[in-house]
Amino acid sequence: MNVLEVKQLQTHFMTRQGVVKAVDGVDFALEAGRVLGLVGESGSGKSVTGFSILRLLDAPGQVVGGQVLFQGQDLAELSEREMRGIRGNRIAMIFQDPLMTLNPVLRIDTQMVEAVQAHHRVSRQAALARSAEALTKVGIPSAHERLSAYPHQFSGGMRQRVAIAIALLNEPDLIIADEPTTALDVTIQSQILSEVQALARDTGTALIWITHDLAVVSGMADDIAVMYAGRIVESGPTAEVLRAPRHPYTQGLLGSIPGHGQRGQALQQIPGMAPNMAQLPPGCAFAPRCAHADAKCRVQAPAPEAGRDGRVFRCHHPREVAACL
Amino acid sequence: MMDVGLRLLVLVFGVAWFARLLRGQGHAYFTGISAYLSTGVLLILLVLAIFAPEFSPQNPYDLAQLSIMDGRLAPGAASMDGAFTYHLGTDDQGRDILSGILYGLRVSLTVSLVATLVAMAIGVVVGMYAAWAGGKTEVVLMRLVDLQLSFPSILVALMLMAAFGRGLDKVILALVIVQWAYYARTVRGTALSETGKDYIAAAKCLGLSDARILFKHLLPNCIPPLLVISTIQVANTIVLESSLSFLGVGVPITNPSLGLLISNGYGYMLSGQYWMSMFPGLALLAIVAAINLVGDRLRDALNPRLRR
Amino acid sequence: MFVIAAMVVIVFFGVYLIGNPIDILISPDASLQEIEDTKARFGFHLPLYQQFFNFVLNAAQGDLGRSFVHGESAVALILHYMPATLELAALGLLFSLLLGLPLGIYAGYRARQWPGKAIMTGTIFGFSFPNFWVGMLLILIFSVQLQWLPSTGRGETVEVLGLQLSLFAPGGWQYMLLPALTLALHKASLVARLAQAGTQEALLQDYVKFARAKGLSEVRILFVHVLKNILIPVVSVLGLELGSMIAFAVVTETVFSWPGMGKLLIDSITKLDRPVIVAYLMMTVLVFVTINLVVDLLYTALDPRVRLQGEQS
C-alpha cells in the first residue's frame, strides 16, 4: 500500500497582490521504504507542498483543494489534535537551517525529550535513553554528554544530524526533508545524504527529499518529481527521467549542471527568470522561457500525460532527447 | 468675551494641528472603536477643561458662593437652601466636586502641557547642539543627561519640590527639570543620524551659517519622532504632578489639581464618603488613559515601518 | 563612580537649600543661647566648605549624620526601614511578572484577534492609573467594601536571615498583598507589552514551526519555547525597573501607611530632617548600582550564548 498519496493538491495564498497558487494540482504517490526527490527552483512550490501535507501552513496560506491520503487516511478529516498526534510521530519533518529550527536557548535533551513525550507516555529517563540512542545512530559521538549541550555548541553538520535524529525518534512512517543539506558544506552534504539513505533503507521509512539541486537527488532518490510554478511538470523513476527527460525544463536543468558539457564551452542556462507567482501567464507556465513554445502552449495549460514505465509529464511538445549525466 | 474667544482659538488651533499631524494617515489612525472613543473622550475633556468657568455649575474658589453647611454631602444631594444640586457631592468645605473636577482638570492639563512644551524646547536645543558640536561638549552634555535619566523621575521631582516649596510655577519648574533630559537624548539620537544625511552636507556646501542649518534644516526633521513621545509624556507628567500633589509637595491649595483633590478626600474614604476622592480619581484616569490611547494610536499610525 | 561623586555634591548642596531646620527643632521662644547651642551640636556654625568636608569624611565611614527628628544615626534609621520597602518591591516585582507575562504571551499569540487587542488596550489603562489611586481603589474595594484585607500598617513580622519580614509571618502577609498589587499594576502593564511584542516576533521564528512539526502542543510552545526566549529582554528591563519600583514605593507606602523607607522619606521632607534625606539618596544610589550589576549577572545566566562567549574569552 502507498504510504502517501497526494491527489490534485492545491494550496493558495491570499495576498494583497492577488491569489498566489503556490501548489496547483500536484499528484504523486509514495510507497514504504522508497525515496522521492521533489526538485524545483525557489518559489516552485516544493516546500509549500511539504508543509501542506503536514497542515503546517502559515497564514495566509490555505489548502483549497485535493486530497492527502496517509496510510489510506484522508488527513483533512482529522481534527487539529489528531493531526498533532501525527506530526513528529508518524510523519516527521526536517528543515533547512538547523540553527534557526532548534531553539537556541533550550538544551538539546529538552528539545528531544519533549518530542518523545509529546507522543508517548514514557519517563524522562526512557526518553533520554531513546534520544541518546538516536544521536548515536546518526553518528554523533559521546551522545550522553552532547545531550546537555546547546545548539550553538554544535557545528552545522552536527546540528543537522541532531535534526535528523529528532525526526527518527518516534520511528515515523514518512519523513519530509525540506532542503536539509542546502546550508551545509559539500563534503558534509554527501556524508549526510548517504547516511540518510541508509537509515531510510534500514527502517523502511518513506522519504520525500525536497531540493533545488538535481545532482543531490540523482544519487539517492528512487523517483523524481520536477516542479515548476506550482505544478509537477515531469515525474518518474530517477534513472529514466535523468536518462531521457521529456520536459524542456527538466532538460534545461540537466543541461545547466556544470561539467556536463565540454571544457571551454559556455555553461548552458535556462533563459528568463522564475515566474511571478501572483501573475502567472495563462497556458503553460514555462512557455515564456521555453525555446519550443508555440501559440498552443501560451494559451492552454498542458494536462499530465502518462508515458511509458510510470513516467508522467505535462507538455504539449515533449522532447525525445537523450541526456547524459 | 475676549477671554472666551481666546480659548476658543486655542481649541481650534489644537484640533487643526492634530488634523495636520494625521495628514492622510487618518485611515491608519481610526482603526477601531477604541480609537474613536479615546479621541472623542479626549476632545470632550479638553473642551471641558478649556471652558471650565462656563461649564461648571459653581466656582469652587469663590468663597462667597460656598457654605460650610453644605459640606460632605453625598452625590445628588441638594444644597441647604435647595437652590442647587451637587451632582457629585461636596467636599468638607462645601465645594461642589463636579466644579472642582473641572477646574482641577484645567490645572492638571495646563501645568503638564506647559511643562512638557518648555522641557521639549530645552531638550531639543540641548540635544541638537550636542549632536552638532560633537567632541567634548557632546560627551559632557550626554553624561549629564544620562546621570539625570538614571534616576526615577518621581524621586528627582520630590527632592526638587522639597527644596523649592509649594507653588504653581515651582511645580512647572520641577517638572521641566525632570523631563528635559529625556527629550535631549531622543533628539540627539535623531540629530546624529540626520547630520549624516546628504541634505545637511548640501546645506553646508552652500555656506549657510550654523544657526540657519540647525534651525531651518535640522530641526524640522528632528521634530516628528518627538511628537508622539511628547503626547505620552504629557500623560506621564499629569500622573507625576498628581502624585506630587497627592504627597503634599505639589500645587498649592489655592489652585488645586486633580491630585490635590484626591488627596483632600483621602481621609474620608475609609469612613465611606468615597466621592470626594473617587470622582476626581476617575477624571484623572480618564484624561491620562485617553491621552495614552491617542498617543499609542498616533505612534502606530505615523510609524513608517508599519505602513504596508 | 562618577555617578556617586556627582550625587554627593548635588545632594549635599541641594539639601542645604531646604529651609532652615533649626526652626523646627526649637520652639520659637527659645533663647538665643539655646539656638546657638543647637547649632553647635549639629555643626551648623561651621563654614560651608568645612561642613561639606566633614560630610564626605563621615560618609566614607558610613556615618551620614544623625536624624534631627529621631536622634539616631541616619544610616541606621534607613537600614531599619529598608527591609520593609525591599520586601514590598520584591513582591511587587513578582506579582508584575506573574500578571504580565501570561497576559502578554497570550496577547502576542492572539495579536490580531480581539483578545490580543483588548489586552493591549487594558495595558494602556494599566499604566495610566496613577499609583496612589490604584492603592485607594484597592483599599476601597477590598478593605472597606469586602473587608477581606487590612488597609494600613504592617501586621506581624517574622525574622528571616536576620531581617524582619512580613511575607512569611502568618499575621503579616495579608498586609502586603494590596500594596504589592498596587506597585505591580504599572509594571505588569509594561511587562505585558514587552511580552506581547516579544511573543509576536518569536512566533515568526523557524523554531516555532519546527516545534509544531514535532507535534508539540501550543501551550508548551508558548510557555516553554517562547517564554524562555522573551525572558531575556523582559528581565533586563524589569531589573532596571526595580529601582523605579522602590521609587514608586514612596507613594504606595504613604497611601497604605506601610512603614518603609519611602514613608520615612516623605516624613523627613515634611519635617526637614536633612541627614535622613541625604542618607536616603545615598542609599538609593548604592541600591541602583547594585541592581545594575545583578541584572548583568542574570542576563548571563539566562542566555546561554552569552555564557559561551564568556567561557571562550
Share of helix of chain B, binned: over 70%
**Record field, number of beta strands of chain B:** 2
Range of helix content of chain C = over 70%
Overall shape of chain C: globular
Quickly count the helices of chain C.
13
Widest β-sheet, arrangement of strands of chain C: 1-2
Helix-strand makeup class of chain B = mainly alpha
Strand content of chain B: under 5%
Uncertain runs of chain B: none
What's this model, at a glance?
By secondary structure, chain A is of the alpha/beta class. Chain A is globular, with a radius of gyration of 20 Å.
Task: Characterise this structure.
The complex is a heterotrimer of chains A (325), B (308) and C (313). In chain A, 32% of the residues lie in helices and 24% in strands. By secondary structure, chain A is of the alpha/beta class. Chain A has an eight-stranded mixed beta sheet, sandwiched between helices. In chain A, β7 (174-178), α8 and β8 (206-211) form a beta-alpha-beta unit. In chain A, α5 packs across α7 (156-168). The longest helix of chain A has 18 residues, at 186-203. Chain B is built from twelve helices and two strands; from the N terminus they run ααααββαααααααα. Chain B has helices at residues 2-22, 26-29, 33-50, 52-55, 97-133, 135-149, 153-164, 168-195, 198-205, 210-247, 258-269, 275-302, and strands spanning 77-78, 85-86. A two-stranded antiparallel sheet of chain B has the order 1-2. In chain B, α7 (153-164) packs across α8 and α10 (210-247) packs parallel to α11. The model of chain B has no long low-confidence stretch (mean pLDDT 79). Chain C is mostly helical. Chain C is 75% helix and 2% strand. Chain C contains 13 helices and two strands. In chain C, α7 (131-145) crosses α10 (218-256). At the B-C interface, α7, α10, α11 and α12 of B face α1, α6, α7, α10 and α11 of C.
